[in-house]
Design goal:
By secondary structure, the chain is mostly helical. The chain has a single domain, classed as Orthogonal Bundle (Photosynthetic Reaction Center, subunit C, domain 2). It is built from twelve helices and two strands, in the order αββααααααααααα. Strands 1-2 form a two-stranded antiparallel sheet. α8 crosses α9. The radius of gyration is 29 Å and the shape is elongated. The termini are far apart.
Length: about 375
């Protein structure tokens, strides 16, 4: 009997452990994000937040000051500089060294060879150099024209790459999840898919909403409106995208929505408008910039459907409500703050006509008195 009692106790203990395994152990705090009583609270676990902050520290929290822009331009010294050539030579070198750290983990001579061919830095033989140009243009565009999303903090290569040649949080379109039996699933209800925070929702909402411009706003304004094109499938896709947002930023729904009226813009926090702009910026990045390098990238840098690795919310945020918790890295690098195309050097002036010999000049002069 005593043995049975011990077994029952052990069984209850084990059941309790499994029941609470998905819960966070205390302490848990809450940040009020709206009027009290409407459920607009952001739940924070200080222990987990400390780990997340440690994972999102900038690589150069105090970068060196920009160099005098009045010095000679890089395009006058180096060949085939198409994007940053209007930077002064020292500032150009400083930016290249920073990019080496941001993308390959260290500003060493051998890291330059990730994009440049041996001693011939002007060569375009490596695909990585061509892709880097597009990524630089994309970064400049984000910092100049998408301030409604990135603000004055801006973005750099490190925002996504974090010292890796390929961002670890990039994604490609998913053709279908295969069960162990070999059967292809119908698009959801498999669990364990990080893109939707391990829920049973459709696992690839990113293709529909962060590459294509499908309808995200599926909440109806009335009961069963006649002729509505909203359906359960679209609703599940929208919820999957919202789970991607929540997991990517480490926040819950009330970060962008008023829990009393999720669809009401006038009662939503300002962060919802920032998210609206973010969706459109990410679509542009994936279609205009990343899509343009599809023919340049080798097969091992593409997904199973042949599409290049693309960006989503988690690519930059990586669990932080602001990438790197708002560390302002971009303002220290003027070459990344605005769209910059290298001004081609002025063509050399034609050689001056040689001066006429004195004898010839005297012969051509008119006679006196004429």
């Amino acid at each position: 009997m005593k043995t049975m009692s011990i077994c029952r106790t052990a069984a209850f203990t084990l059941a309790a452990v499994f029941a609470l395994s998905a819960c966070e152990r205390p302490p848990v705090d809450a940040v009020q994000r709206g009027y009290r009583g409407n459920g607009m609270e952001h739940v924070v676990n200080p222990r987990l937040l400390a780990d997340k902050v440690a994972q999102n520290m900038p690589v150069d929290p105090e970068p060196a000051a920009p160099v005098d822009p009045a010095l000679p331009k890089a395009s006058l010294v180096y060949q085939n500089v198409q994007i940053l050539g209007d930077l002064s030579l020292p500032e150009f070198s400083r930016t290249m060294n920073a990019m080496s750290t941001w993308v390959t983990g260290g500003a060493k001579p051998e890291n330059c060879n990730y994009c440049h061919e041996g001693n011939n830095f002007a060569s375009d033989a490596l695909y990585t150099k061509k892709v880097a140009r597009v990524m630089l243009s994309m970064t400049q565009r984000a910092n100049q024209d998408w301030k409604a999303h990135v603000g004055d903090t801006g973005v750099t290569c490190y925002t996504c790459h974090r010292g890796n040649p390929v961002p670890t949080m990039a994604w490609t379109s998913d053709p279908g999840y295969k069960h162990a039996s070999g059967m292809t699933a119908t698009g959801q209800n498999v669990g364990g898919v990080a893109a939707v925070a391990n829920t049973s929702l459709p696992w690839d909402p990113l293709t529909s909403y962060l590459l294509h411009d499908n309808n995200i706003r599926v909440q109806s304004g009335g009961a069963l409106p006649q002729g509505s094109d909203r359906n359960v499938k679209d609703t599940e896709g929208t919820y999957a995208l919202m789970m991607h947002f929540s997991d990517s930023l480490g926040v819950n729904c009330t970060y962008c929505h008023n829990s009393r009226a999720f669809g009401n813009w006038t009662e939503s926090p300002p962060t919802r408008l920032k998210a609206w702009n973010a969706i459109r910026q990410v679509r542009e990045m994936n279609n205009t910039y990343i899509g343009s390098v599809a023919d340049i990238l080798p097969a091992h840098r593409k997904g199973p459907l042949g599409d290049p690795l693309k960006v989503g919310c988690k690519t930059c945020h990586q669990g932080a409500y602001k990438p790197l918790y708002g560390a302002p890295m971009a303002p220290a690098y003027p070459g990344l703050l605005a769209v910059m195309k290298t001004t081609p050097p002025a063509p050399p002036a034609p050689p001056a006509e040689p001066a006429a010999a004195p004898e010839a000049a005297a012969a051509e002069a008119p006679a006196a008195g004429h």
